[in-house]
Amino acid sequence: MNFQELYDKAQKAGMEAANGHVPRPMIVQEHKDMMDDNSPVEKEYYVPQGICGFAWVVVKPGNCPFANWLKRNDIAKKHYYGGVSIWIFEHGQSYEKKQKHASTMANVFKEAGIKAYSGSRLD
Q1: Is the preceding omega at residue 48 within 30 degrees of 0, hence cis?
Q2: Does domain 3-21+51-122 have CATH number 2.60.40?
Q3: Span 15-39, pLDDT tens digits
Q4: How far apart are CA 91 and CA 93, in angstroms?
Q5: Residue 50 carries which DSSP code?
Q6: Which of 29, 38, 59, 101 is deepest in the core (most CB within 10 A)?
Q7: Do 52 and 122 contact (CB within 8 A), yes or no?
Q8: CA 21 to chain centre
């Protein structure tokens, strides 16, 4: 298996999935009294990219040939709960786009017989 080709295929599929996804926009309001949501709204911001967050792909085990290749090529780092993680840096702060990218990449890896899953969290 050519690991570079597999990674490129997964990255391309992830980018296409994320770019094809339209996140639900977010409205952020600044109240006169920051401790009282019922106080008058002084400013309002429209955030078209939606909520902020992070996403990554975990490949296990961390010493399998593909994980070792990812580490050697500075694509992945040791993951806290075992394996290695590939962080999704594209798509600004958009949680939805990053999550879509990571889950698509993980699916491409799984189709190739590699143990992988995506993770994400809000900021």
Answers
A1: no
A2: no
A3: 999 999 999 999 999 999 999 999 9
A4: 6
A5: -
A6: 101
A7: yes
A8: 13
Give residue 94's pLDDT: 97
**Residue 3 amino acid letter:** F
- The span from the CA of 8 to the CA of 75, in Å, is 11
Token pair listed for 34: 């920051």
Instruction: Tell me which DSSP letter residue 62 carries.
Output: T
Q: How far is CA 31 from the centre of its chain?
A: 31
Please give the backbone phi and psi of residue 90, each rounded to the nearest 5 degrees, phi first.
Answer: -75, 170
Nearest to 116 by CA among 16, 7, 21, 20: 7
Tokens 């980018």 sit on residue: 15
| Amino acid at site 16 | E
With a threshold of 0.70, does the pTM exceed it?
A: yes
